[in-house]
Amino acid sequence: MELVCARPPISSYSFMRYLCASLVKRSKVIIDLDSMISRIYAFKQNNARLNFMFEDIEFRTSIDNVISNDISEGINNLQTFGIVGKLNPRYEKLVIYLTEDEADAILKECTDEVEQAMMELAASF
Question: How far from the centroid of its chain's Cα atoms is residue 44's Cα?
């Protein structure tokens, strides 16, 4: 019998933590929120071998827009824990408040394959 209610290998919160850590390692600490979800979605579409990373993330696409409540919720959780903040007045920029050492500690939690994928994704920002 196949297990239907298995836990995803990477939660949406962990995905965003890994991405933020990778962005810090690439010296990218201010990110445009408007393009973030579409870049993540494009990365997913171009890397079918990494679909396991996106099991906990749902995307909704329209003609000219991609949204993900899971990614938005992950960002909100990161904001609650002080890892990221949003710049005013319209909150169009995401600021990552991790140090290099904190980013290294976060990336040690994931596999080499996931870390390489996150670094590749971070390079697209």
Answer: 11
Question: Helix, strand, coil % (nearest 5) of the chain?
Answer: 55, 10, 35
Tokens of 52: 């396991």
Statement: residue 3 has pLDDT above 80: no
Structure-token pair, residue 63: 């003609």
Rounded CA-CA distance 120/88 in Å is 29
What distance in Å separates the CA atoms of residue 71 and residue 95, rounded to the nearest whole number? 15
Whole-model pTM? 0.90
Query: Where on the phi/psi map is residue 66: left (φ > 0), alpha (ψ -120 to 50), or beta?
Result: beta
As a whole number of angstroms, the distance between CA 75 and CA 29 comes to 14
Q: What angle do CA 93, 28, 9 make, to 5 degrees?
A: 90
How far is Cα 123 from Cα 60, in angstroms, rounded to an integer?
Answer: 24
